[in-house]
Structures are given as C-alpha cells and as structure tokens.
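Structure first, sequence second, as always.
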C-alpha cells in the first residue's frame, strides 16, 4: 500500500485549499443542533458534485454516503462527522466570521464536516484501488441531548450496510497542528444534566426567623453534594460534579422564595453513575427537608462514556505513525468531557482520536466553546489525508 500512501498525501495537498474553502463556508453559516437544514443541503450538493451516492433526511438533517470499492460487501468501515454549531456570539475578526448572530462553530464541527467531505473526494477517486465500502455519516445534533448519534442509530444508520467499525475525530486546540492523539480503552466520560429547585419562604433579609431561606439551604446542599465526589466515589472511577448556574433573584435585603440551579455530573462507570444519581437526589431532598424547605432534583440522563476499541485504535494509531511520523502522534489522557460519538462506541468497535489545531505563533490558542475559538487551517491537510489512510488501513485489517 506504499503507493496509495503517497497518492493520498498528494491528493490531500492538492485538495487542501478546496476543503479550507468548504470549512470557511460552513463556519460562516453555522446552524444549531437539529436545525442544520442549509448545512445539510450544502453537504448533499458536495456529495453530488463528487459523484457519491447518499441518503439524506435521516433524523431530518443527517446524511449517509457510500463509497464502494472492489468487492464492496467484503468489509465496511464508517467515518463520522457532526454538523451542528453552538449558541455563542463569535468575536473572531476573520473574513469568514459567522453571519448568523449568536451562532458559532466554536467546537470545530465545521472542520469535522469539511474534512469528511475532503476524505470522501479522495477515497471516491481511489475506489478502484481498495476493497470494501466506506460509509460516510454526517450527523446532526451532537451538542444537544439526546444526541444525534443515538437518534441516527435508532433510524438504522448502522445497517444496510453494517459497518465493521467506526472512526471519528475531534479538533484539539491544546495540540499543535500537524499532530494527532490517540487513547485506547476508556477515554471520555458519561454526562448528565442536573436541574435543582430549592424552595423555601422568602421575606425581609433582616428578619430571617420569619423565613425559610432557600439560599442557605442551597449552600448546604452544594457543599454536601461534593461528598459524592470526594467521599463516595471509588478512587478508580473518575467523577465530576459541577454547578454552573444558580439563580436566586433576591436582593441585598430580600430572601427569595426559591433558588434554581443547573449542573452536570460526569462519570466513567455505569454502575456508579446510577448509584450516584440516587445518592445525590436523596441527599439534596433530605437536607432541604431538615431545614424546613423542599428540593426538586431532576436528572436528565445524557451520553454514555466513550470507549475506544483496542484493536481499531491501535490500527489507527499505527496508520497515523506511518502517515505523520512517530514524533507527531501522542498518547491522550482521560477526559471528563463528553461526546455523543460514545453511542457508536457502545455498539461498534470504534476509534475517536484528536486532531491538533493550535498555532501559538498565529495566536490560535483559544479553547473549545469560546467566542474566539479558531483553528490553524494547515491541520485540514493533515485531517483529510490521515483519515483517508486510516479508513483504508482499517478496511485492510
């Protein structure tokens, strides 16, 4: 396959600027989760331009394309990209800045989608030189529960044809462009959304004996709930419990009737995850009751943990070393962030790897989900070439 490796590198260089233009178009016209109608139409137009067969309208805006090589039934590998953007006001001063006010590709899905289109073009031009089928999955709604991956699976995205394995990638602003990272086994956490309402009896802040203070109750609940992480979780089961939104709507001299909170719970063990749900709810409710108030504790169960198949990941990492050199391939640490690609990893051998996008010299260093997030677009050449090579190596394995 040495000749194919060289050919893929040449095509990645040749199509780099075209894919960058696609990325900039997508970045300039972002759409929120499950609302990616124009994005979907644009992707379909590119697949048609490349002569690739596809089916659209899966979970409304999702798309599945097929590239059939020789003996297409021999093995199928799926490649996935996500389409949606985030509700963030972009602050980058670039020519391709978002024109959709309050919506921004701040998580790199524009890179993922444009890269998969680049991969599609490369592999479609090489389909007479490999055996098997490459299944292209363009998925909506990664950023919002219940996650587009879970819905696409329910609508049969992993059927007809059935992939042997599935590959996904994600931009990584902590890693320099030109480098990639892999981790076999457990990689990312499950995620649950927490909604808590602490109710008391509001009144004059100078007369606390006449009130039931939900702010004080909330403080006790928040402090106590951290025991779930520090005292109850097993040392080998990483856990995160954080609350990012607290609304009391009182004043300097007003105790409110209620306090509303929103938070997140992350874990890497399903048995402990279920146990923690019970513990958190019981603890919050009992503390509120003991202080004369009440607490409504709702848990919206989100994505499961993400686990990378050892064989598929090792094969992809070896392919990356062949393509980029060992010095440009790193080992990743566990992450308590979450990804709905995890649904795919629960039912198919999978590999989810990271694409470096940082360039300190160009001040491209902002983190994901920030208003100034951007990428070194030289990473796109790495992205389309490497994913093409990984796909062919997986078909060959």
């Amino acid at each position: 396959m040495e000749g194919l490796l060289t050919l893929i590198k040449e095509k990645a260089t040749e199509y780099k600027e075209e894919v960058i233009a696609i990325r900039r178009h997508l970045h300039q016209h972002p759409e929120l989760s499950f609302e990616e109608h124009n994005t979907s139409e644009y992707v379909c137009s590119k697949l048609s331009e490349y002569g690739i067969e596809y089916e659209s309208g899966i979970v409304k805006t999702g798309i599945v394309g097929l590239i059939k090589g020789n003996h297409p039934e021999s093995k199928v590998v799926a490649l996935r990209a996500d389409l949606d953007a985030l509700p963030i006001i972009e602050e980058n001063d670039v020519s391709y800045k978002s024109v959709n006010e309050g919506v921004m590709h701040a998580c790199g899905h524009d890179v993922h989608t444009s890269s998969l289109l680049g991969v599609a073009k490369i592999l479609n031009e090489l389909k007479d030189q490999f055996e098997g089928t490459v299944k292209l999955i363009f998925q909506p709604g990664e950023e919002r529960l219940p996650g587009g991956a879970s819905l696409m699976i329910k609508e049969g995205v992993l059927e007809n044809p059935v992939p042997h394995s599935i590959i996904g990638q994600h931009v990584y602003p902590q890693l320099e462009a030109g480098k990639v990272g892999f981790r076999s086994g457990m990689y990312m956490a499950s995620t649950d959304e927490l909604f808590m309402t602490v109710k008391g009896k509001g009144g004059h802040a100078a007369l606390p004996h006449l009130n039931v203070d939900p702010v004080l109750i909330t403080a006790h609940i928040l402090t106590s709930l951290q025991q779930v992480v520090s005292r109850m979780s097993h040392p080998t089961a990483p856990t995160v419990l954080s609350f990012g939104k607290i609304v009391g709507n009182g004043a300097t001299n007003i105790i409110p009737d209620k306090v509303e909170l929103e938070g997140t719970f992350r874990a890497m063990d399903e048995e402990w995850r279920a146990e923690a749900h019970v513990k958190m709810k019981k603890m919050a409710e009992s503390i509120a009751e003991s202080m004369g108030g009440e607490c409504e504790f709702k848990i919206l169960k989100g994505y499961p943990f993400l686990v990378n198949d050892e064989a598929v990941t090792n094969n992809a990492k070896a392919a990356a070393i062949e393509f980029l050199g060992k010095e440009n391939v790193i080992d990743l640490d566990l992450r308590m962030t979450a990804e709905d690609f995890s649904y795919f990893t629960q039912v198919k051998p999978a590999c989810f790897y990271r694409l470096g996008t940082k360039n300190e010299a160009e001040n491209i260093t902002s983190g994901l989900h920030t208003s100034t997030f951007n990428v070194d677009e030289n990473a796109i050449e790495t992205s389309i070439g490497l994913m093409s090579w990984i796909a062919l190596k997986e078909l060959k394995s």
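Margin note: The chain has a mean pLDDT of 97.
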